[in-house]
Amino acid sequence: MPREDTQSQQKMKEHNSMLLLNMIRREAPISRAELACRTRLSPTTVSMLVEELLEKKWVVETGAGSSGSRGRKPIMLEINGKGGCIVTVEIVSNGCICSLYDFCLRKLRSVRMKQSGQMSRDIIEEIRVLLHEQRVALSRLVAISIIFPGIFEAETGHILFSSVIPTELLERDLPDKIRKGFPKVRVIMDNDTRMMTLAESFSEGYVPGTNMLAINIDEGISAGVILKDEYDDIKICNALEAGHIVIERNGRKCKCSNQGCLEAYCSVNALLRDLNEQAGVELPYEDVWGSEVNAESLAKAAGLYQAGDPGVRKVMGEYIFNLCCGLFSIANLFDVRAIHIGGRIMALGEHFLDEVRKTLAEQFRFVKSGEVVIEQSHSGYETIRQAAVRTAMDLVFSSH
Ligand SMILES: [Zn+2]
């Protein structure tokens, strides 16, 4: 057989194998017959490929399912949770969080690490400890997924910039160094906002086939969009620099050195500053990502807002108008039908969301009779990590 034919046959086999594996992941428990029916592969092909997946221990048989029409109970298949593990490494403002997951997205353990001079060395050491403690053989670790709040080179994962972590604290070649510590493990770098958006698309609140904007409002503002494609089933996540959309020409100076950015008006600390300056409150705040001081002050502001404090309400009215300017721009650009708002700002509660809906409808004439749904984000830190695990599994499974 010519080499090209052998290669394309091999590719086709890998493709089909991944198709089955992903269907088992989503639909388990599922029988071979059902797999053949759903994927339109022949029963012989399904049997052969499933046999290989069983050999690799990625899939297990779970005994007989419910009785079929002919009375014979089929053997069901599901993902073998113990088949392999994935580590997520979230880079946060003062260190990182390493978590170990099995193939069934079950978290086995999570450890928070403080910032140090040599993060890569500490991360490698911590991952070894995690595996040892959980009695997972190194050969079962298939991927390490680094979740980074900033931008990096797509090919190499070399860190370029983060607006939330000072550059001097970052090792530019972090992925390379971790690869050296685990030469046989796939090391992946992904953006935190992209993972947040992906997590939102896996949540119950996402209506398949809808263009959706997921926006997180903390000390910074990040967002991603899920776009339906012509087949209605492929999701594309674009991490947007939503915080730096200009909503006011020649407006407030932003830390990106531009003027009038959404973030300069609508970050959590911008809101706290406005409340202090214009509503006569004394709520301490700082320009630090993930600040506890800001969280406490925001909770107090939420109390005053919900109690109807007139000064706070006035500032909130302006805040919401500015936020809607940003939402309106992005939503029109991508023709989104759903906006999911998350992050620390949601401490302001359902009343805040109601006001956002009202402002978009009345002042922007945007939300007509349920045309655009605005709701609270469903994803949290845990679902973001799980999205990273799923992405890593897709990559690993597609290359075997
Ligand atoms: Zn800016």
Strand and helix map with partners:
Layout: H1 3-27, E1 30-31, H2 32-39, H3 43-55, E2 59-64, E3 75-79, E4 85-92, E5 95-102, E6 107-114, H4 119-133, E7 141-148, E8 151-152, E9 159-161, H5 174-181, E10 186-191, H6 192-202, E11 212-217, E12 221-227, E13 236-240, H7 262-266, H8 268-278, H9 292-306, H10 310-334, E14 338-342, H11 350-362, E15 373-376, H12 381-398
Parallel strand pairs: 4-7, 7-10, 11-14, 14-15
Antiparallel strand pairs: 1-3, 2-3, 4-5, 5-6, 8-9, 11-12, 12-13
Bound molecules: zinc ion.
Description:
The model has no long low-confidence stretch (mean pLDDT 88). The protein has helices at residues 3-27, 32-39, 43-55, 119-133, 174-181, 192-202, 262-266, 268-278, 292-306, 310-334, 350-362, 381-398; strands at 30-31, 59-64, 75-79, 85-92, 95-102, 107-114, 141-148, 151-152, 159-161, 186-191, 212-217, 221-227, 236-240, 338-342, 373-376. It has three domains: 3-79, Arc Repressor Mutant, subunit A (Orthogonal Bundle), CATH 1.10.10.10; 83-195 and 382-398, Nucleotidyltransferase, domain 5; 206-378, 2-Layer Sandwich (Nucleotidyltransferase, domain 5), CATH 3.30.420. β4 and β5 (95-102) form a beta hairpin. The protein has a five-stranded mixed beta sheet with strand order 6-5-4-7-10, with helices on both faces. α10 (310-334) crosses α11 (350-362). It is built from twelve helices and 15 strands. It has 400 residues and is of the alpha/beta class. Bound molecules: zinc ion. Zinc ion binds at residues 244, 254, 256, 258, 261, 263. Belongs to the ROK (NagC/XylR) family. This is ROK family transcriptional regulator. It holds the Pfam family ROK. Transcriptional repressor of xylose-utilizing enzymes. It comes from Wansuia hejianensis.
